[in-house]
Amino acid sequence: MAIPDASLGASSARSEESLVLAERLAQGASDPEQVREAARLFSLEGHRARAIDVLRQGILTHPRHPDLNALLADLLSRSGSFEEADLCFQRAVECDPGNAEVRYLEGLHHGRQGHLPAAQSSYEEAVRLSPTHVKAWVNLGLALADRGDRTGAASALKRAIAADPSCAEAHSNLGVLFAEEGLREEALEEFRRAVALRPDSSESHFNLGWALLCEDELCQAEATLQESVRLDPGNVEGLYALALLHQRTGAYARAVEALKQAIERRPDDARFHYSLGMAYNSQEAVDQAILALETAARLEPLDPRIHRLLGVAFDKKELPARAREAYRRAAALSG
How far from chain centre, in Å, is Cα 325? Predict the structure, then answer.
């Protein structure tokens, strides 16, 4: 018989208490602070629709309250109701043009839709209004990086760190920029800072582990990537990085195990099937290699590497006609 999990029971009780409190606060629509807190609690407990309803009711009483309009806009944006969110953000800005938090949330809203110039503009206005708004600096850096302005991105991330040296996200993203620029030592330093600041962050461990793998620091890389996956078992990129590491060290069975887990979570990623085919091919498990590589070719038919390795597998299987066809396709795709 299973033993009841006391921690789950306690968590459920706390959740119920939060919802009761939220409902009680929601009755005080005459107080905008109570409305905001009720919406926050409902949202935290996963009751986003109820949070939106509470904010709508509160805005009926306080139509010009910038925070209520901004919170409603943010929740609508998170729910995919972008057009209505646009109207709410416009109203929030009109109510309080100097509110940096409103501009920051507006930037997130534009970013969710892939409107990078608009997102950048909102973040720039947020940091103009509040030069120490760390999250706005971080997201401005990300928007600039996505638009190809790496110099501006690095500057924004450094401003975030200047405002808050303990911001692990800023260190981690600055490390990514350094890595992409080939500044490996600087990247490792930023990644190590991010892990020290946020030892519970799977992403920070992944970034550091990948950088260590690129430096052939395999023991440290393996330990760091394993911690990344432990912190987030759904981290498929961490599993993929571990598989590449195991292949490099000749631990093909472990590579296969990691890749199978990655494929289970993301079955349509051709990289995983290609690497699985490589691992099976190295184990002389030719039939499994062919199956994995054919799946990879179906998902990414224009990758010459896949067809080239299929040719190798067909040669091992003594299927010369199929091997020639695979090599021919690889050559044609390579130009």
Answer: 39
Q: Which residue in the block uniquely carries the two structure tokens 């990879």?
A: 296
- Number of CB atoms found within 10 A of residue 29's CB: 17
Report the 10 Å Cβ neighbour count for 155: 14
> Would you state the structure tokens that stand for residue 301, as one six-digit string?
């038919």
pTM: 0.84
**Region label for 120, one of left (φ > 0), alpha (ψ between -120 and 50) or beta (otherwise):** alpha
- The highest-level CATH class for domain 37-97 is mainly alpha
What's the pLDDT tens digit per position in 7-61? 445 555 667 787 777 777 777 657 888 888 888 888 888 899 999 999 999 999 8
**Residue in the structure block whose two tokens are 């981290």:** 235
- Give, in order, the Cα–Cα distances in Å from 43 to each of 55, 114, 158, 249: 11, 24, 32, 46
Q: Among candidates 95, 120, 98, which has minimal Cα distance to 106?
A: 120
Structure-token pair, residue 118: 């608009």
User: Contact at 8 Å (CB) between 204 and 225?
Assistant: no
Question: CA 236 → CA 133, 191, 228, 264, distances in Å?
Answer: 32, 19, 10, 9
Q: What CA–CA distance (Å, rounded) separates 247 from 236?
A: 16
d(CA 14, CA 197): 28
C-beta of residue 136 within 8 angstroms of C-beta of residue 104: yes
- 277 is written with which tokens? 């085919």
